[in-house]
Write a structure and sequence with these properties.
Helix content: 10-25%
Number of strands: 6
Strand order of the largest sheet: 1-4-2-3
Strand content: 25-35%
Radius of gyration: 14 Å
CATH topology: 60s Ribosomal Protein L30, Chain: A
Shape: globular
Number of helices: 2
Oligomer: single chain
Number of domains: 1
CATH superfamily: RutC-like
Largest sheet: 4 strands, mixed
Order of helices and strands: EHEHEEEE
CATH architecture: 2-Layer Sandwich
Amino acid sequence: MAGQGPFDPRSGAVIGHTIQEQTAQCLRNITAILHAARSSLEQAVSATFLLADPSDFAGMNEEWARWFPSDPPARQGARHPLAGQGPRISSPWWRRRAPKQRGAASATFAAPSNSARRGTWAIL
């Protein structure tokens, strides 16, 4: 999955002012997409996040711990290249655990958003 920011899925508006609120909205958006693809946060093994301000890491980490109290996916982070132009966080990439069944058919699910501001996403 790629390109999830702290946006309201209907209006495209940034949700929240604090890094905790924006992190929670990113994770709500990711949860909804994973649910639509018959997956869940529990199947995530790694995630990348981009922060507009590196000093927001502690607040992002605080919210992250609420969503993943045990066995969180691996993370990597960087400074957002468009810092200062809207959201404080973006979570551009998540990797899913491999299916437990061998030989299972694979499926592709992709849907672009209708607004470049909201980003795009895909589950492959």
